[in-house]
Queue: 4 jobs
Job 1
Amino acid sequence: MPRKDTPEPSPVADFERSLDALEQLVERMEQGDMSLDESLAAYEQGVGLYRRCQTPLEEAEMRVRL
């Protein structure tokens, strides 16, 4: 049976999902209820989400400048 290729999410949708996840993560961290290990894992996850958000922003800025 042929495998259906799932369409890749648009960069805008991916950006919005990453930004939402980052905002939720920050809210959880700000509550102060996480252990040190949980905080470190959340921080690492947050850095990854930040990077996923930063690239599309930089690309959009470059398009605007052009």
Job 2
Amino acid sequence: MKALLLWPVMPNSFWSYQETLDLAGLRSTNPPLGLITVAAMLPPDWDIRFIDRNDRLETEADWEWCDLVLISAMIIQKKDFRELIQKGVALGKKVAVGGPYPTSVPEYALEAGAHYLILDEGECTIPMFLEALERGDEQGVFRSPEKPDVTQTPIDRYDLLDLDAYLAVTVQFSRGCPFQCEFCDIINLYGRKPRTKMPEQMLAEFEALYNLGWRRYIFVVDDNFIGNKRNAKIFLQALIPWMEAHDYPFSLITEASLNLAEDDELVELMVKAGFVLVFMGIETPDTDSLMGINKVQNTRQSLVDSCHKITRLGLQIMSGFIMGFDNERPGAGQR
């Protein structure tokens, strides 16, 4: 089987940072971790071509070469996602899709003409898809309520990437988040019980990137890196000597909830392991709004004190805010 894996164009938005990338001489912030994870799950005798359309466009020769097209997408990519499905169908190629957008809105991909919808988490549904191909099924929708054991997830195919294109390369330690923020679909996609990889898995991924020559940022793209604090500490305790032995080749960034400020040991371990920046959803200074969206973890301590504590301990905060919540009082932006 000859498979063409495509990541659609990211239009200029919060997700693209195009002007900043242009200044830096780069083409994309980070690669699609989902697709290169899927690539590692496909049969070893398949021929694979991976193309991030934010880095370079595929050629007509690529379309002619392939038997099967696999496309993943987030909602921001919906226009290019649809056009790629339609082009594949028009060229007589079998088209399979997956990822967060088709998982959330499968009818969009079906209406565009996709033959196979590989939804939910690929560790469960990729085997279903491969079995359907073996049977000769011409189409199918593959779903699973089961949350896979990520300790069985293979090392991502970082070798497929043009590493010169990216500001940061992505790795994942855990999936899921224990909180229930009303506006977030993470718990719908990945559940409220964080599942974590083993430290040796993570070190193998770091080693693979190191051996490929990567020396910039690594974005640990967990839904909430501290969702399972115990396992996060175990991983960090294994990562610190690896980073020290390799002379800290990467700067690490991640996403975590503001209750990180409640655990000095965890912040100190993150800093010692090479983390320099953490994205945090602060959302709003208004407690009534935070309670209304069920973000109670941001109400347990002073937001300002929590942020200052984290930065004093050595992590920079990249903060997320949302304007216009119910119960928002005038002047929220200024506050």
Job 3
Amino acid sequence: MNKKVLWFIAFLIVGAISCWATASSFHLMMPNMPYVAVIAMTIVFFVFASYAFKMILDAVHNDGSVDNPKAKLWGGIGLLLLTWVVISLPTNAHTFFYKLQIGNVVSADLKTTATYSQQLATRAITDSAYKVIEKQCEEEFGKFSNEVKGNNGKSGIGDQANKYIININNLLGPQYAIPTIQNTNKSKDDFNTYVINCVHDQMVAQLARKESAEYKVNEQASIQAKRDLRDLNILQDSIKNLIHTKEISSTGAEPVIKQAEGVLTIAYNNIKMNDKYVTFNNDEDKKLYTAQNPEPRTTRFLNPYVVFADFFRGLIPFHFIFWLIISILLDVLGFISFDLAFKKEYDF
């Protein structure tokens, strides 16, 4: 069989793999675009990239048959940068890496987000500002207790003792006020202790009411978080099943992954709007969930250009570079096959 035919067959085989990888990546970014249209687009890009590579080789190995080889060289470089470096290379590396990592990424994203949604659903976290008021109330109560016990040889409840209760009420607010006590002269220690305990119990109860009403996430956000938590847990089970059956990297898993992305986006936004009621595991999580427009890790992983950016920021495992090298070798093999199928072999 003619060598050129063999090289053309090699070009078709390598091109099919490269175009599949590029199309898979693009379709994750543009799921509403018909897959056939995505495939057609990637074929055009790969052919143009191959031709650009051929232009460069023709210009470099000019035997006098190429007019204006410099223009052809720079034109080829420009076209190669656009069609390969910008489009084919990052998407190919992304697809290979995605197929291996998507299960881990989605599973971890769902699990972490569920942890934070759980805090909102159970209203577990109190705004730190509450601690300031609680401390001030306890300080005023301490003064009240000392006054009632009679540090200066006087005991009982008088105007000065009630002033401390008024101070407590100013901190609590009118809707949480505790009653002042009727003035007494010297009182027995048992009665004083009883009054002190009653005041403290009332203050603690009103502080708890104030904490729940003003310093914890509101009920509406808590209800939404419960919905988020339910959906996140359902999808966690679905993703685990896909991982267990090794179907997570198949095209059939994409609808479930996109569904997870949608649920995660809702949960991320609820967490962002109520971030002061969430204790984040680390600064990276805090930055991610409280960004101006929170973007789930799953969403970021579906975009090849974001994955590349995160890799250079040190957020993607270093072995991503292995798939980058594989993608380079694969495409270069395709480009060389294209050139050799349509022109003489070069002495490299």
Job 4
Amino acid sequence: MDIKQKVGSRINQLRLEKKISITNLAWDANIDPSYLQETIRGERNISIIKLSQVCTQLEISLHDFFVDPLFQ
């Protein structure tokens, strides 16, 4: 699994835990839903700024986002 897939998987994991739809998460994070869908599928390289916006909506810090066994 490459880094784009890991990031996408982690976003999806946290999104499912919070029971937030992809569309609602995208709108709340001020990004396009198709961009987020492609990121979750590991097809797009998300910028750190957009990832920060997603993390804010998921109520997790960037540090805690990456402190996960998926990234070790």
